[in-house]
């Protein structure tokens, strides 16, 4: 696992504007029905990464205007809640991600939410390059942090290790500190709530 200094890794130096996959109408990459764009390339190389092939910036195929239009078409359905950016590392593919995010905002305003996964922490992104900060400011929910195999926990919601967080980006930026998504419910907490309810 690698720990970059601020602005050490720049999208302009690494990204090839490739995408690994696009999956429409899924239920696993965030809240509700979502369309998920998997960008290619990641430098974190976390031990136990479930998607090692996508660490390669040349993996997959180039992002196209046709795919951008397809994403917008798929998002237009009322039952689709939003777009999810994954990878690979979205914040090392900011050109592709900002292109799509800006188009989503142009077409739908705030009606569709945007989630992103990243190996960066929220705090690291605040100190990094302008394009990373721009993307951060344009998404709603961030699942942050490297995957740490020693902290792997299958009971966690939408993340693989206990150091990772589901962050409400808008509230965090407004309050100047990390605010955890208020709908986060890990399996352990749910079981605890059931036990408490049974005692009442």
Strand order in the largest sheet: 3-1-2-4-5-6-7
Which percent range fits the helix content?
25-40%
Low confidence ranges:
189-200
Q: Which structural category fits the helices and strands? A: alpha/beta
Write down the Rg. 17 Å
Mean pLDDT: 89
Number of domains: 1
**How many helices?**
7
Helix and strand succession? Answer: HEEEHEHEHHEEHH
Explain how this protein is built.
With about 200 residues, the chain is α/β, with parallel strands linked by helices. The chain has one domain (about 10-200). The protein is about 30% helix and about 20% strand. It has seven helices and seven strands, in the order H-E-E-E-H-E-H-E-H-H-E-E-H-H. A seven-stranded mixed sheet has the order 3-1-2-4-5-6-7. The chain is globular and about 40 Å long. The termini are far apart. About 35% of the residues are buried. Mean pLDDT is about 90; it is low at about 190-200.
